[in-house]
Amino acid sequence: MPRSRETTRRAILQAAYEQFYREGYNRSGVDAIAEAAGITKRTLYDHFESKDALLADVLDHQHGLVLERIARWADPGPADAVALIEGVFASVAEWVAQPGWQGSGFSRVAVELSSLPGHPARTATRRHKAAVEAWYADRFRALDVDRPELLAREVMLLLEGCFLLLLIHGDSSYVSAAAAAARHLAQRETD
């Protein structure tokens, strides 16, 4: 029985996500993605006009999943900004300890395509990171933080920095160092 168009599209997105995450964008071929999805390369191009468009759609799909994960990290609703930060960084510590962790796919793609500022994946990454920062700002605002946008930006810097340094050094203590710095910043904004 043939798959529906939507089922095929989901299979392509999943196969592409796994390939891009494991190999990076430039080392991932559409032949390997099509094979992993159980389709032909022609079928892949029937659904996506290019590898660039496929990557942008993969990132758009992942955007919603990442926002759901961040929201789960913050549940149950914390009583204050420090509790929110502690919960988020505790969840980050669990995430980075998983076998095969290779960092944030969004950040890795932005670095890999840094010479192509107009690339659709760079646009999707910018939109995603802005939405995550806005999510933190909204949560901090709801928790009566004095400068929620500033604290959200600082937390984003600490998260991205700890991810990058963890990839470089393989040392998970960067997560606890970033958590301590974020906790200090949250206390500054709530005192």
Question: Which SSEs are present, and which pair or pack?
Answer:
Elements: H1 5-23, H2 30-37, H3 41-47, H4 51-73, H5 81-96, H6 105-112, H7 120-142, H8 148-169, H9 173-190
Provide a short characterization of the protein structure.
The protein has helices at 5-23, 30-37, 41-47, 51-73, 81-96, 105-112, 120-142, 148-169, 173-190.
Give an overview of the whole structure:
This protein has helices spanning 5-23, 30-37, 41-47, 51-73, 81-96, 105-112, 120-142, 148-169, 173-190. The longest helix has 23 residues, at 51-73. It has 9 helices and no strands. The protein is mainly α and 191 residues long. The protein is elongated. Helix 1 packs across helix 4 (51-73).
Classify the secondary structure makeup into a structural class.
mainly alpha
H/E element string?
A: HHHHHHHHH
If helices are DSSP runs of H or I spanning 4 or more residues, what is the number of helices?
9
Distance between the termini: 63 Å
Query: What value does the Rg take, in angstroms?
Result: 18 Å
List keywords for this structure.
single chain, 191 residues, 0% strand
